[in-house]
């Protein structure tokens, strides 16, 4: 007997009655079986014409009316499918190409314009199909390409024909149980799931199934093919609608849904009132409610939800994406007196094996139920494979398995094991709590309890006492508990509780109450409008706009509400529901009505608020070893330091100070080096302790890039790059390479030992931005092609690139590794913070005035200068805190002094400013000409100084406390370079073609 494939489930549907409904709250579209089948055949024909059969087709589409037709058309062409994340398709594609042969893409035309600019040039448009009431679908194929990733994918393709016919689809794990994995799912693994669950749920052609999961989450395959195989109706809504409880409820009610398969978190987000009064009421249309993806709600919660007259069947599904999709199923009979609070996992599904180790860890798989993970080889047929779930279970005398928790949720405290699931069970008996999430923080050894209160409950000492009393009476080794109240539990795109966002909420909930200042209604609404724009990144707002549809999400809604309540010092309990479900006008109306009532917000002492994590001015000092295990320290523009951190048993040649009496500082020219043309770049200086070498790396407009020895006053090596160098260099943390940008569009990785070019990476335009390197040896640099790049510092391979705005990047990136963040600014005034590992935006702020300055991180946030005479301060959330006005444009970047509280920067009004982090002026130094260079703060002997240069060529040494001139030196040419100080030497470039190297001397 031939193996049954997913497409066979569609073909064998004898009813010929499969229907699709799509509701985006703008219109409702429908497709019957005949219409859907027409598009199935059309897509299959396009793939056949493009010779894209027997391959993996990457899909970049939003879930729409033709989603089933796209899937079935690909399967009809004997190919497999994968849905790429539409929010980061290029990153998803690159991850995929490492393991899977993808040479064909199907994408919505709406994505094509933007993606065609950032996809590899080898992707060429081959075909287009236009659906009724639907934008066109573009078919792209990869032509010959020499890039390693594309070559790798084509090599995989050439070796794939022996197994591609067995492959149904490819999916990426959510990463909730570890690093995300690429999972290749054979037909024989997923088809038994469809067959078994169709029988257990008794699915028929009269049923209505709502697609609850995104297409990047494999339970969506179950929903789609339960509908396809039974000939019933599949209801599809945009993913953002599922995050708007009121609208999703409307879909469930109006469609008369009979089958829901969803995470407990998604169901709970609909609210206890709706679940009890509608979804599981006496008159509910719902036949089947299946929970999966997270631990099932307890027996007590289910009993509170379900009316005694309700006939809905409840199921608990358990599984692992690595054995897509479900492994076991348990039908929950609330009248079964043998059931305990913890719902069993149930019996294995068709063709599935479940095994448990002595330690209680579950493994699932079988001879047919297996998938291929990442770069694994396809196994032989009838080869039994078992996958670790990472879950701990217990087996009761009735042979039933019960979920006990994740391996990482069985915590050890005071030498004893403690199950977080047990604590969850105990919390269900505490009154006054509507919903909650428990998380153990390993750093503080605290249990973090996020709670949603009942609408009738006010958080007070009694509620906190009840929580603690319940837990302490049942658990002897209970850790310290921190309770954080919230009004909403954020969900991931897969519908699971988003613990990361909850932790972010905890760490950013620091907006302390301000003195309430009376303001007019119009002023108040202007504040609301600005906050709305900040969180949704919208330039304008219409009265009918919805926060979620504008680009917000549940966690941003919480932050918006928190800001509004603190801004106006009033509590608006109903505001979350209105923000999520209603329009901007509705939000304004409720705020206006509350302003008239003026209910002052009382801060609750019991609700512990944790301040934003403090920024540091740069990476923590760390010891870094080169090949010969030699320690070194680096200094470069903006006071960036890596310092020697030897243990006491070892000594180094570096001496911070040799005299403790008061002295005055003087400069003495030690040497200078001619680089043939102007030097606008700033020096990177490194001192190697064992070899006692003090090296300078710098380039010039002549394209010369040199390494000098300051102590030996000679040139170690010189290379001639093809074009001008304005970029300042930086050194790798392994001590082997130095990186510099060039006008020839390239970033170069150069061997420190001999100046040989190890690699070069070509961007789309001049690289004037100065690179910065992370502790993971990732180099970040901007280009005039508008992209920020992340490049592997060892081999020069691109990790990711991101268009920041519609203008070039002159500014240099700045890292804050504690938050995994990189910040950069553009010439159109955009300031952005991105995730270092993915390039995803954390936030952007469009200041709309050109910015040449580079961002500075401090404990108070981000500081940066602009050309409209303003020095800007942003908080961590991307809000503009203040604009400090000067009398000239600011091209200089800032440095931080005096325990990270004072900020110093130069200005084209010929001044150096020192201000406090709150914008208060400390001192101002007036120089002889505009100041372009970035100040460098350093300590010499017992005193603290600032080195800075004016455009006319005067080098100033200022005292940090008062800004008084302690020494000055006039260079022969203009200076746009910034000074660097290390190991009693000051180095700076000049437009007379020379690099000047000064010794720091004391004058008694």
Automatic annotation (TrEMBL):
InterPro entries in alphabetical order: ACP-like_sf (IPR036736), AMP-binding_CS (IPR020845), AMP-dep_synth/lig_dom (IPR000873), ANL_N_sf (IPR042099), Beta-ala_Activ/Resist (IPR052091), PP-bd_ACP (IPR009081), PQQ_b-propeller_rpt (IPR018391), PQQ_rpt_dom (IPR002372)
The Carrier domain, residue ranges: 519-595
Pfam families per record: AMP-binding, Beta-prop_ACSF4
GO BP terms, alphabetized: amino acid activation for nonribosomal peptide biosynthetic process
Protein name: Beta-alanine-activating enzyme
Gene: AASDH
């Amino acid at each position: 007997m031939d193996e049954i494939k997913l497409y066979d489930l569609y073909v064998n549907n004898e009813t010929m009655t499969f229907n699709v409904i799509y509701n985006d709250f703008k219109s409702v579209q429908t497709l019957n079986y005949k219409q859907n089948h027409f598009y199935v055949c059309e897509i299959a024909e396009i793939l056949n014409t493009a010779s894209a059969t027997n391959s993996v087709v990457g899909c970049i589409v939003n879930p729409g009316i033709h989603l089933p037709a796209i899937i079935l058309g690909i399967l009809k062409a004997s190919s497999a499918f994968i849905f790429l994340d539409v929010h980061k398709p290029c990153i998803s594609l690159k991850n995929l190409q490492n393991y899977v042969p993808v040479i064909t893409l199907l994408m919505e035309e709406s994505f094509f314009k933007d993606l065609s600019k950032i996809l590899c040039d080898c992707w060429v448009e081959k075909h287009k199909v236009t659906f009724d009431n639907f934008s066109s679908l573009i078919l792209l194929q990869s032509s010959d390409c020499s890039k390693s990733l594309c070559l790798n994918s084509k090599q995989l393709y050439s070796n794939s024909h022996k197994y591609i016919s067995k492959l149904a689809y490819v999916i990426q794990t959510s990463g909730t149980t570890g690093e995300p994995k690429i999972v290749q799912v054979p037909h024989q693994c997923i088809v038994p799931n469809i067959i078994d669950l169709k029988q257990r749920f008794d699915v028929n052609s009269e049923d209505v199934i709502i697609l609850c999961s995104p297409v990047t989450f494999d339970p969506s395959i179950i929903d789609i093919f339960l509908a396809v195989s039974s000939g019933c109706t599949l209801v599809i809504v945009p993913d953002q609608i599922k995050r708007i409880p009121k609208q999703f409820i409307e879909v469930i009610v109006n469609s008369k849904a009979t089958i829901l398969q969803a995470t407990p978190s998604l169901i709970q987000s609909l609210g206890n009132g709706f679940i009890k009064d509608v979804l599981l009421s006496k008159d509910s249309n719902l036949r089947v409610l299946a929970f999966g993806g997270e631990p099932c709600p307890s027996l007590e919660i289910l009993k509170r939800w379900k009316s005694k007259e309700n006939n809905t069947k409840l199921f608990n599904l358990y599984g692992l994406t690595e054995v897509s999709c479900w492994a076991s199923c348990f039908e929950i009979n609330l009248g079964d007196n043998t059931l305990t609070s913890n719902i069993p996992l149930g019996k294995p599904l068709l063709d599935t094996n479940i095994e448990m180790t002595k330690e209680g860890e579950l493994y699932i798989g079988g001879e047919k139920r297996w998938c291929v993970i990442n770069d694994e080889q396809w196994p032989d047929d009838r080869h039994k494979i078992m996958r670790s779930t990472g879950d701990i279970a217990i087996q009761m005398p009735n042979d039933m398995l019960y979920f006990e928790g994740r391996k990482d949720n069985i915590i050890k405290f005071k030498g004893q094991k403690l199950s977080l699931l047990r604590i969850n069970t105990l919390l269900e008996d505490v009154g006054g709590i509507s919903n909650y999430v428990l998380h153990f923080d390993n750093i503080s050894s605290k249990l973090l309890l996020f709670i949603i209160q009942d609408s009738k409950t006010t958080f007070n000492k009694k509620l906190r006492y009840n929580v603690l009393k319940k837990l302490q009476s049942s658990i002897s080794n209970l850790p310290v508990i921190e309770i954080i109240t919230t009004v909403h539990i954020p969900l991931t795109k897969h519908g699971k509780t988003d613990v990361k966002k909850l932790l972010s909420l905890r760490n950013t909930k620091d907006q302390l109450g301000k003195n309430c200042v009376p303001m007019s209604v119009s002023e108040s609404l202007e504040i609301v409008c600005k906050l709305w724009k900040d969180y949704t990144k919208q330039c304008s707002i219409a009265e009918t706009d919805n926060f979620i549809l504008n680009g917000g999400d549940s966690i941003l809604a919480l932050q918006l509400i928190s800001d509004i309540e603190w801004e106006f010092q009033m509590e608006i309990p109903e505001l979350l529901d209105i923000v999520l479900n209603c329009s901007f006008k509705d939000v304004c109306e409720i705020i206006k009505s509350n302003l008239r009532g003026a209910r002052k917000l009382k801060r609750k002492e019991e609700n512990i608020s944790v301040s934003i994590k403090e920024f540091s001015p740069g990476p923590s000092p760390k010891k870094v070893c080169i090949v010969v295990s030699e320690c070194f320290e680096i200094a470069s523009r903006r006071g960036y330091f890596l310092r020697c951190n030897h243990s006491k048993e070892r000594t180094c040649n570096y001496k911070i100070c040799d005299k403790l009496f008061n002295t005055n500082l003087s400069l003495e020219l030690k040497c200078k080096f001619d680089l043939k043309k102007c030097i606008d770049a700033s020096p990177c200086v490194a001192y190697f302790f064992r070899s006692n070498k003090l090296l300078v790396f710098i380039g010039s407009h002549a394209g010369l890039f040199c390494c000098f020895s300051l102590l030996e006053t000679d040139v170690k090596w010189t290379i001639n790059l093809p074009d001008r160098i304005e970029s300042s260099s930086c050194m790798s943390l392994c001590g082997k390479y130095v990186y510099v940008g060039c006008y020839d569009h390239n970033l170069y990785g150069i061997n420190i030992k001999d100046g040989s070019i190890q690699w070069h990476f070509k961007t789309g335009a001049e690289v004037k931005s100065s690179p910065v390197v992370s502790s993971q040896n990732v180099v970040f640099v901007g280009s005039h092609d508008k992209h920020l790049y992340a490049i592997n510092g060892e081999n020069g391979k691109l990790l990711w690139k991101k268009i920041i705005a519609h203008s070039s990047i002159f500014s240099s990136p700045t890292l804050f590794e504690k938050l995994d963040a990189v910040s950069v600014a553009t010439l159109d005034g955009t300031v952005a913070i991105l995730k270092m590992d993915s390039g995803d935006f954390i936030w952007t702020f469009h200041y709309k005035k050109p910015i040449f300055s580079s961002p500075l991180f401090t404990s108070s946030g981000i500081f940066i200068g602009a050309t409209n005479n303003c020095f800007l301060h942003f908080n961590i959330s991307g809000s503009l805190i203040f604009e400090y006005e000067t009398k000239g444009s600011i091209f200089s970047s800032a440095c931080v002094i005096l325990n990270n509280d004072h900020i110093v920067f130069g200005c084209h009004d010929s001044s150096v400013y020192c201000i406090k982090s709150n914008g208060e002026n400390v001192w101002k130094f007036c120089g002889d000409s505009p100041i372009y260079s970035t100040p460098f703060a350093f300590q010499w002997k017992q005193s603290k100084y600032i080195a800075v240069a004016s455009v006319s060529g005067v080098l100033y040494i200022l005292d940090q406390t008062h800004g008084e001139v302690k020494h000055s030196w006039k260079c022969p040419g203009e200076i746009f370079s910034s000074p660097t100080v290390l190991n009693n030497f000051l180095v700076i470039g000049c437009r007379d073609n020379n690099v000047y190297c000064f010794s720091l001397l004391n004058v008694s």
